[in-house]
Amino acid sequence: MRLILKQKQPECLQAFFDNAPEMIAWLKNNLSSVTLISLEHDLGPNRDKKGEVFDPGIGREVVDFLVSQRPTCPVIIHTTNPQGGEGMKWALEEGGWQHETVIPFQDIEWIEGLWIRKVLELGKGEGEGV
């Protein structure tokens, strides 16, 4: 995602997170400058972080934070978890957030096709992409 985004939108400032708690903390201070958010539902298993067990959470936690805020930018949901993705979509709709869904396929082929097309379509404007 980083490489494709850099190739297609070199002027875009990027912020990537592999876990919900850090993304939510960052969004609390930066949401007003974000032009697009792209979220996965399943963020992987617990992992070791500085000798502690760390739970990365799920994308729905980020959505739950977003819907507590005024809608500011579009959200792309990219997940192969149909139930999780539907829950995220429902919550975003209820919160008034514009959203689209891209279903991943064939390793990373979807990133170079469907995902980047949605990013370019939805992420127009100044600010940072996530």
Explain what you see.
- This protein has helices at residues 2-8, 20-30, 59-66, 82-94, 109-122, and strands at residues 13-14, 34-39, 47-49, 52-54, 75-78, 99-102, 128-129.
- The protein is an alpha/beta fold.
- It has one domain (2-122): Rossmann fold, CATH 3.40.50.
- The strands form two sheets. It has a five-stranded parallel sheet, sandwiched between helices.
- Helix 4 links the parallel strand 5 (75-78) and strand 6.
- Residues 125-130 have low confidence and may be disordered.
List keywords for this structure.
130 residues, single chain, alpha/beta, Rossmann fold, two-stranded antiparallel sheet, 7 strands
Number of helices in the DSSP assignment: 5
Multimeric status of the protein: single chain
What is the gyration radius calculated from CA atoms? Answer: 14 Å
Unreliable stretches: 125-130
Largest sheet: 5 strands, parallel
Number of strands: 7
> Class, according to the CATH hierarchy?
Alpha Beta
Average pLDDT, rounded to a whole number, is: 89
Approximate strand percentage: 15-25%
Which architecture does the CATH hierarchy give at level 2? 3-Layer(aba) Sandwich
Helix content: 40-55%
CATH-assigned fold name: Rossmann fold
Overall geometry comes to globular
Main-sheet strand order equals 1-7-2-5-6
| Tally of distinct domains | 1
SSE run: HEHEEEHEHEHE
Q: What is the distance, rounded to the nearest whole angstrom, between the alpha carbons of the first and last residues?
A: 10 Å
| Structural class label | alpha/beta
